[in-house]
């Protein structure tokens, strides 16, 4: 474990080095930044993850696929996570593509509208998911905080 101090902000880095396999599993996890941190704009973390999973341009994931690099972003209940899986020989390329993605986020109206439609469809489908509905009712009766009542974590 390493502890970095950048401009007064402490960053914990946990790493494990394995030399038996020529594979890299890289994760950037931002603690307390997932759905639980959404005080006023529910769905922001999830939508940002969806937008980042669109890539920086139409060929972004084709370029990654050519070198067998997997890059994925997700928002969980407590964390926002960026994951990379690749061969060690392509790790520098993967990190360059991650930097490209973060510097060229596709905040395009057509992409946002498509992602909103998909998200709304997923939420509507939960209305007929009896396990989800039961979990939601249970959480509403058990928890006082609204973030825990929704059952979307």
Question: What distinguishing features does this structure have?
Answer:
153 residues, three-stranded antiparallel sheet, single chain, 6 helices, 22% strand, two-stranded antiparallel sheet, alpha+beta
Short summary:
The protein is an alpha+beta fold and 153 residues long. It is 41% helix and 22% strand.
What order do the helices and strands follow? EEEHHEEHHHH
The coarse silhouette is globular
Largest sheet: 3 strands, antiparallel
Q: Count the beta strands.
A: 5
The helix fraction, in percent, is 40-55%
Percentage of β-strand residues: 15-25%
- Structural category: alpha+beta
Major beta sheet, strand line-up: 3-5-4
The CA-CA distance between the termini, in Å, is: 29 Å
Global mean pLDDT: 85
Q: Helical segment tally?
A: 6
- Name the poorly predicted regions: none
Rg over alpha carbons: 18 Å
In words, what does this structure look like?
There is one protein chain. With 153 residues, the protein is α+β, with helices and mostly antiparallel strands. The protein is 41% helix and 22% strand. It contains 6 helices and 5 strands; from the N terminus they run βββααββαααα. The chain has helices at residues 44-52, 60-66, 91-103, 109-125, 130-142, 146-149, and strands at 2-6, 9-13, 23-31, 70-75, 79-87. The chain has a 3-stranded antiparallel sheet. A hairpin with a 2-residue loop joins strand 1 (2-6) and strand 2. The chain is globular. The two termini are 29 Å apart. The mean pLDDT is 85.
